[in-house]
Amino acid sequence: MRYAPPLITHDITLWSFIPLIISIGFAYGFFRFFVPRSLAGLQVAFPTGPMRYEVHTITKDKNEARELLRSPSMRFGVIAYTMALTGAIIIVIEFVLLQLRIISAYDSISLLIGLALISLPAIISTATSLTAQIIRPQGQIKATLQDSSSGRIAMESP
Asked: What angle do CA 35, 37, 39 make, to 5 degrees?
């Protein structure tokens, strides 16, 4: 049995917006309720010696987790994750609607939005990670006298 390739339509209909609306609602609910609950009681452990760790509690409950997610340092990660999740849900909804024969073809607008919402955070995240590995901020460079020559140390001394 031979399968026909799925069709892609370029017409804008009501069904063009249904996957977008459902995915935005799902992503909002996910970040509003599920993520803070899963981050409640978040702990981080730092090694202090062989088989010894110092444990710090970051969040006690879901309210502290929500505050953590709203902090400026977390904003980029939360937005990127939400965008990618929304894009993936859009594509899954398109697939399900097609399998249930509610729609007869994939909607090009939904696919474009879904792929863009997945691709943009992936590209930006990769670029950010590579940049952080290549260019270290000045505050992260440790002061050391190991690589300094004695003449340079003498010239820099008051």
From this structure: 70
